[in-house]
Amino acid sequence: xxxxxxxxxxxxxxxxxxxxxxxxxxxxxxxxxxxxxxxxxxxxxxxxxxxxxxxxxxxxxxxxxxxxxxxxxxxxxxxxxxxxxxxxxxxxxxxxxxxxxxxxxxxxxxxxxxxxxxxxxxxxxxxxxxxxxxxxxxxxxxxxxxxxxxxxxxxxxxxxxxxxxxxxxxxxxxxxxxxxxxxxxxxxxxxxxxxxxxxxxxxxxxxxxxxxxxxxxxxxxxxxxxxxxxxxxxxxxxxxxxxxxx
Length: 246
Known about the structure:
By secondary structure, the chain is of the alpha/beta class. The chain is built from six helices and ten strands; from the N terminus they run βββββαβααβαββαβα. The longest helix is centred in the last third of the chain and has 18 residues, at 228-245. The protein has a single domain, classed as Alpha/Beta hydrolase fold, catalytic domain (Rossmann fold), CATH 3.40.50.
């Protein structure tokens, strides 16, 4: 893996919110340019929260989550796993990009690691990091846990919960938090129970919060699955996890 030096456009001066300085984060991996987003808190950061996007790439949802983390006192960094020039115009594009990474787990992990290294190279970014993700990103967070990435924790929001053949959680050294809707048609409650059994057997500290009646993309405002009550509960659970971790 070759990860080139990154560029934070405008040196955090491009865009300001009431609580943070924020800007796109550009870095390269294996000749491909990736563009994430970083939001810095006003004062010293309590820790770093990495955010992996849903299957439609880095967009307003991930940017809003990064800013929310900054407002809560953390560095919020949305990572890009598809590349800046990826065409993301509809379901077929989303399936192509996610399918390619599900089919090549080594590349999946390498892209996550490239983003983590780019984040770690930023000035004033704490090295203690928690990896979070939504839907596809939730599955990615669990992939990072199984890879034994040297992070402080892993949080999956309505992610795919299945463990690929040949993988396990024996290398996972940090706590895992799973936030899931009981009515999720993609990964059902049996999948959640199986994951909890795997984590227990591997000796991995783990917690699950189940939101009754919530469907798959319950955190995505504007989607058919949007559930503001479940979303608020999941955000509160994340903040509790971060408070316990950092």
